[in-house]
Specification:
By secondary structure, the protein is α+β, with helices and mostly antiparallel strands. It contains six helices and ten strands; from the N terminus they run E-H-E-E-H-E-E-H-E-H-E-E-E-H-H-E.
């Protein structure tokens, strides 16, 4: 019998060339498809909730796949998870309805971005944070107020083809800040994020935190619908897909 399976995994993005399968490079999706196909003795094609770039991590990335249940679903977590490399860990496995899709059934996502002010940590933790000078977090919070709610985020996106210009409207529910022991965590919750959107926003917020830009410049950038100012990305190392909500 064909079963539709939902899985949540965590992975260290520094070990892979992004999520999406690639013909000649190691990606998370490609690695999982190859490994699952070998173990389950059938072709496995995975539908992810979305892509993460090279160097971006996941605390909980979601995907679905269909398979002939030669191994019961209840046994998959151990059967598959026990054979994975240490940089990938299965968190959740469950059977879902045949029409459930990891991407199209999602209603919102949360990401976190980690910034470390402790430069002594940089040697061993450079793959997991963006290391910067200390920032004016209150100014960053003021800038974030312009970003919450529904907006056209084309100014904070990398559009790779004209078709993607059709819908650049997104809603950010919240942007929250946590600071502890010199580590700043910025949490984004929204109904979806455009390509490079969070990394472009974080770079802008850091410029505000360094007092190189004013908080109200955020509104000007949004209304401009232009990438003339948002020309640089925050490093992928600090970005984590935290959770996909259904």
């Amino acid at each position: 019998m064909i079963k539709n399976v939902f899985i949540e995994i965590s992975y260290d993005g520094s070990e892979f060339n992004g999520w999406q399968r690639l013909p000649n490079d190691l990606s998370v999706q490609g690695y999982l498809e190859k490994t699952f196909s070998r173990l389950l003795k059938q072709e496995i094609l995975i539908d992810g909730s979305g892509r993460t770039d090279k160097g971006v991590h996941a605390i909980n990335q979601s995907f679905t796949f269909k398979y002939e249940d030669n191994v019961p679903v209840k046994n998959l977590k151990y059967f598959l998870g026990n054979k994975l490399v240490e940089s990938v860990k299965i968190q959740t496995v469950k059977e879902v309805s045949s029409d459930f899709h990891a991407r199209y059934s999602a209603v919102k996502k949360s990401y976190i971005y980690k910034i470390n002010f402790n430069k002594d940590d940089q040697l061993f933790y450079r793959n997991y944070f963006w290391f910067t000078e200390e920032l004016n977090i209150e100014m960053m919070k003021k800038a974030s107020e312009y970003l919450t709610g529904e907006h056209d985020f084309v100014s904070f996106s990398s559009i790779r083809n004209k078709e993607k210009l059709v819908n650049t409207i997104r809603n950010i529910d919240s942007i929250d800040y946590e600071l502890e022991n010199g580590i700043l965590i910025i949490r984004f919750v929204g109904n979806g994020f455009l390509y490079h959107m969070i990394r472009l926003i974080v770079h802008h917020l850091v410029q505000v935190g360094l007092e190189k830009r004013l908080p109200d410049s955020t509104d000007e950038i949004l209304k401009s619908c232009s990438r003339k100012v948002t020309t640089r990305l925050a490093p992928p190392s600090g970005l984590y897909l935290e959770k996909v909500y259904y």
